Amino acid sequence: MITDPLFYLCAIPAVLIVGISKGGLGGGLGLIAVPLMSMAVSPFQAAAIMLPILCVMDLVSMWGFRGNYDRRNLQILLPSAVLGIGIAALSFQYLSESHIKLMIGIIALLFTANFWLNKLRRRQPAKTEADPVKGSLWGTLAGFTSFSVHAGGPPMNIYLLPQKLDKTLFAGTTVIFFAVVNYVKLVPYTLMGMLESGNLTTSLALVIFAPIGVYTGIWMHKRINENLFYLLCYGLLFLTSLKILAEGFSELLL
User: Fold this and answer.
1) How many Å separate Cα 195 from the centre of its chain?
2) Over 47-116, what HEC string results?
3) For residue 137, what pLDDT is reported?
4) HSE (CB half, 13 Å, CA atoms) of 21?
């Protein structure tokens, strides 16, 4: 079990922030967890510690948003996400974390930049519908990027946000999606030896903060106007894309 105080100084806020994101505030806010914890441990150890905590958060979130989900989108997204996890597990030893960060950062930045440009031009992007081709593409990418750094949020938001779903339906759909993704990830994480006793006991020490964060997010979700909710989602996605790009470039240059 990790005993370094610096780790917990980073990890406790990280768990709370991810919990708030799981509670219904989208926009890729949960991306901050692994980078924050990586200030004290390696990124891959941070990801391993976070996974059991994410699984607990998923159970709390599913109860909070029970009955609210888009069945058609999940039917498209989930099989492709499992495929993405499989591809990531098989290619894990060949891809660096910095390359994955650059990939999702560029995609998310271009997507959000287009949204804000349309806002400045006072043009509303056309509402989209569930699409098997686009959904399979973004679902696979979400499963792939979620595997190593728990960064499946941006690809999911890129696909779902243009559909302009009711905010609770949007949140419930993402909750179920990531619950399935995270529980599937337990299998390769275990086979690869990432869930060893030291990481699991550290997860156990932090898990008390999981429901606190999730219920805080649910409380905030119910009190935020729907237009504000989507502006916040796009804003957070833009900021996290900048952050993850900066991290990817800095890691490659070191």
Assistant:
1) 20
2) HHHHHHHHHHHHHHHHHHCCCCCCHHHHHHHHHHHHHHHHHHHHHCCCCCHHHHHHHHHHHHHHHHHHHH
3) 96
4) 27
Distances (CA, A) of 49 to 25, 45, 152: 22, 6, 17
Mean pLDDT by 10 residues, the chain (254 residues): 88 88 69 76 86 93 90 96 95 79 79 75 72 95 88 86 88 92 96 92 94 88 73 75 84 79
Computed on alpha carbons and rounded to an integer, the radius of gyration of the chain in Å comes to 17
Q: CA 109 → CA 11, 136, 224, 242, distances in Å?
A: 26, 21, 24, 7
Q: Are 206 and 81 in contact (CB under 8 A)?
A: no
pTM: 0.82
Residue 125 pLDDT: 64
Contact in structure between 143 and 82 (CB atoms under 8 Å): yes
CA distance 165 to 194: 36
Q: Other C-beta atoms within 10 Å of 143: how many? A: 30
Q: Token pair for residue 170? A: 């949007």
pLDDT at 240: 73
